[in-house]
Design brief:
Helix content: 40-55%
Number of helices: 7
Number of strands: 5
Number of domains: 1
Amino acid sequence: MVSTFADAYMLILEELNNSLLKIKQEEVERLLVRILQAKKVFVVGAGRMGLITDSFSTRLNHLGIPSHIVGSINCPPISSEDLLIVASSSGETATVREIVRRAVSSGASVAAITAVPRSTVGKLSSFYVFLEAPSTLQSTEEEVLISVQPMKTLFEQSLFILFEALVLLLMDRTQQNGSDLALRHTNLE
């Protein structure tokens, strides 16, 4: 069991590694290509996943890739030239489902990052990245990584690392370094 800080973080790192190793390179590649093709990128997630997607949106802007957080007051309309990245472990969060439906009806591409590709969001999306981690809607028959961390924590951690890896890959593909990104960082703090 977990009785020390070292026990806890080693367990977390082991679970995280097991989840991240299952991400398919071809799914990541498709997402990278679509991000670079999109005129604008929109992101959405609920709760803690929303915080993680918001953070990714900020980093996309640092990369010079126009990105917007769905629901923010300055969010422009989405179009067929744009990409919506949606993070939903279950793929059934009501507000997120409705946003995906609206993006699809506007002709935008939708990339779902989900633990349940057969979910409504997974089926409505243009493509998905499968994150194998516990979700509230997986059936007991499905093979899924077991986590001792509460609720969807492993999914959220994997999502954050996926986005950080995408940033490094996008930096490479756009031939940028940390100094280039820093030029687009706020100077009002």
